[in-house]
Write a structure and sequence with these properties.
8 strands; alpha/beta; two-stranded antiparallel ribbon; 6-stranded parallel beta sheet; 16% strand
């Protein structure tokens, strides 16, 4: 029996019946707390722990792991440094960043490292389950004040004539590019081999991150910023 399921439509992304998770944090108490919260869910299971970034890389590459939760600040390698390494040989591995810091710098560095989710430790007991499930669907998950940070950054970059698209994940950029050609969600889903529902989620996340209201505004900005050609 396959350990994967498809959510929603026939073209939906495959999601494991049980997501196998690696938790990396240099504090055993944090790892234990996350394991307790995650293992309480029938579709989530912690299968490994690491106490620093280098060990997290080794274990995520050597073991059957679907998602790695990485603390931003760890010895040997930080979570941000560790996030980039498995993607070179294991691009299907999902990454979720965990931090005690409500920091613009760490937030943007995490997004640039390819982590679609950033969870604060202060809210991890309530947010981490939703964040893991969002990451496995290919969606973003950011704590509320992070969205305000991204909106502020967008306004400042717009005023300076800079491009805000480095805050988008690679998948979100793929969703943005066909929009000006009037591709429907179904056409974009077929092109990217994902579900229509996933396309709509990505589009909603993109608009929220960039503080925009609709695809018309997004198209104008994308053309003006040079991401796509008119």
């Amino acid at each position: 029996m396959s350990r994967y399921r498809r959510a929603g439509t026939a073209s939906a992304d495959a999601v494991p019946l049980v997501t196998r998770i690696l938790v990396a944090d240099d504090y055993a108490l944090v790892r234990s707390g996350l394991r307790k919260v995650l293992d309480a869910q029938p579709d989530l299971r912690v299968v490994g722990e690491a106490q620093d970034g280098a060990e997290a890389v080794e274990r995520s590459l050597a073991e059957d792991v679907d998602l790695a939760i990485l603390d931003v600040s760890m010895p040997r390698l930080t979570g941000i440094q560790a996030a980039a390494q498995p993607h070179r040989t294991q691009p299907e591995l999902h990454i979720l960043m965990l931090s005690m810091h409500d920091s613009e710098q760490f937030l943007f560095e995490s997004l640039r490292a390819g982590a679609p989710g950033y969870v604060l430790k202060s809210g991890a007991d309530t947010d981490v389950v939703d964040a893991v499930r969002a990451a496995m669907r290919g969606d973003s998950f950011l704590y509320p004040s992070a969205m305000a940070t991204l909106a502020k950054d967008h306004v400042e970059r717009d005023a300076a004539g800079e491009k805000p698209f480095d805050v988008l994940t690679p998948r979100e950029l793929e969703v943005v590019k066909p929009i000006p050609e009037a591709h429907s969600s179904k056409e974009i889903a077929c092109e990217l081999v994902i579900s229509i529902r996933t396309v709509e989620r990505h589009r909603g996340n993109i608009l929220e991150k960039l503080a925009m209201r609709d695809r018309v505004e997004l198209t104008r900005y994308a053309i003006r910023s040079g991401l796509i050609q008119p």
